[in-house]
């Protein structure tokens, strides 16, 4: 049997992101001074170092940027979850997001394919993870 899955540990800066996921919504920071969305959550805008970051809701629509098919566990907690499909998607609003692909056969994955968000509630933890599946699924 595999070890328990690790659970994210929100920080004061990232808490709004995790709270939104628990509500099956996606909040991402936006910097008016930089004129763009930014991810990972932070206190100052990249490039301008302005303290103008604000949380905005996005729909999570994205394009698959890269992925891998892990046929061996990436760590003990994933021993029973093979193949694992770690991926990076690029949100339509700009930033890239590290995730995992679900509900897809590895042979059907293509770089550049459209993907849609899937909210995965972790039982007994109060946490929700953001995964992605093919948009046409």
UniProtKB/TrEMBL annotation:
Pfam families: OB_ChsH2_C
Domain (ChsH2 C-terminal OB-fold): residue spans on this chain: 55-119
Any coiled-coil regions, as ranges: none
InterPro entries with a match to the protein in the record: ChsH2_C, NA-bd_OB-fold, Thioester_dehydratase-like
PANTHER family, alphabetized: BLR3430 PROTEIN
Name of this chain's protein: Acyl dehydratase
Organism, as annotated: Mycolicibacterium aromaticivorans JS19b1 = JCM 16368
């Amino acid at each position: 049997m595999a070890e328990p899955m690790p659970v994210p540990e929100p920080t004061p800066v990232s808490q709004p992101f995790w709270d939104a996921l628990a509500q099956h919504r996606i909040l991402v920071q936006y910097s008016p001074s930089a004129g763009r969305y930014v991810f990972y959550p932070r206190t100052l805008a990249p490039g301008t170092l302005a303290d103008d970051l604000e949380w905005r809701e996005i729909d999570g629509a994205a394009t698959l940027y890269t992925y891998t098919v892990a046929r061996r566990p990436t760590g003990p907690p994933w021993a029973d979850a093979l193949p694992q499909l770690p991926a990076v998607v690029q949100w339509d609003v700009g930033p890239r997001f590290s995730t995992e692909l679900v509900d897809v056969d590895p042979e059907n994955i293509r770089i550049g394919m459209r993907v849609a968000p899937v909210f995965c509630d972790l039982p007994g933890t109060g946490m929700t993870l953001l995964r992605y599946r093919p948009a046409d699924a």
